[in-house]
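Here is the promised in-class demo. Please do not try to memorize the tokens; focus on the logic of going from shape to residues.
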């Protein structure tokens, strides 16, 4: 049966890249279904995302063998242009572990979109340092794993988290208002496959009660930022941001409500785009083919 595969790549900017890729796909009798590209003239870098339909018969091993074969055969093209590339099975939904603390608005939104089939990924477990959100996770049929964290047990807790990620064969970890700072070592091990969400008042309003601080300063915009996790706290490559305009009539409680809406929207979009292989890392930035 025909199946769909997505190719993402980046390389130094030069003529002939699209022609070379298109010729390779044509030579295999593949039909291009979606194509996006971006030339970053400032850094002289090129980015591309192409989804195509494989009309030939699959090997006995299925799509995994198709992708392995394509990767080997495309290597010569990639070497000529200095490409970093990846083929993925488009219909496959990445496995997602969600981490939470006590606030459930982002988890609730992710569960809703997962059940509706619009998240792009497959939720496989919820991990928390508290028991508060166990009923929400279990009501959705998701395993809930309680990993308590104290200053003394933090290294042990992070080892348990990484072991669980490996055990579940998770492709992505989503920090959906998880209120613990991950160690540099854990951030490095999850590089490029962990997404965090924070209110966009950072770094302007750090510490406790950011919405109270924002109210005191009379802010006119409430926002949220979804980004990849890095050792630099809340400064990883940005995937998506959501902004909602407010006015003087919004008290701290209403600000917090609007802020939660922004957080849920930005996070769900970032998760979907990542799961659909629409996000390419470029240093401290991202290229997002939304």
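The designed amino acids, position by position:
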């Amino acid at each position: 049966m025909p199946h769909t595969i997505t190719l993402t790549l980046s390389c130094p900017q030069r003529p002939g890249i699209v022609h070379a890729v298109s010729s390779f796909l044509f030579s295999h009798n593949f039909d291009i279904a979606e194509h996006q590209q971006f030339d970053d003239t400032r850094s002289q870098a090129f980015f591309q995302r192409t989804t195509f339909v494989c009309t030939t018969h699959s090997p006995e091993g299925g799509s995994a063998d198709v992708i392995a074969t394509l990767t080997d055969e495309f290597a010569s093209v990639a070497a000529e242009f200095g490409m970093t590339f990846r083929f993925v099975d488009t219909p496959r939904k990445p496995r997602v572990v969600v981490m939470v603390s006590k606030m459930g608005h982002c988890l609730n939104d992710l569960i809703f979109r997962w059940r509706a089939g619009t998240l792009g990924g497959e939720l496989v477990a919820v991990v928390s340092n508290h028991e508060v959100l166990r009923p929400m996770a279990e009501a959705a049929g998701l395993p809930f794993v309680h990993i308590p964290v104290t200053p003394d047990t933090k290294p042990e807790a992070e080892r348990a988290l990484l072991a669980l990620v490996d055990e579940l064969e998770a492709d992505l970890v989503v920090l959906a208002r998880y209120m613990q700072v991950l160690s540099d070592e854990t951030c490095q091990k999850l590089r490029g496959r962990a997404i965090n969400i924070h209110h966009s008042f950072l770094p302007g309003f750090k510490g406790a009660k950011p919405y109270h601080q924002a109210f005191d300063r009379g802010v006119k915009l409430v926002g949220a930022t979804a980004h990849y996790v890095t050792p630099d706290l809340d400064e990883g490559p940005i995937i998506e941001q959501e902004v909602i305009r407010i006015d003087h009539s919004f008290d701290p409680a209403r600000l917090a409500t609007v802020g939660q809406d922004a957080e849920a929207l930005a996070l769900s979009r970032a998760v979907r785009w990542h799961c659909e292989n629409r996000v390419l890392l470029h240093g401290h930035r991202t290229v997002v083919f939304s």
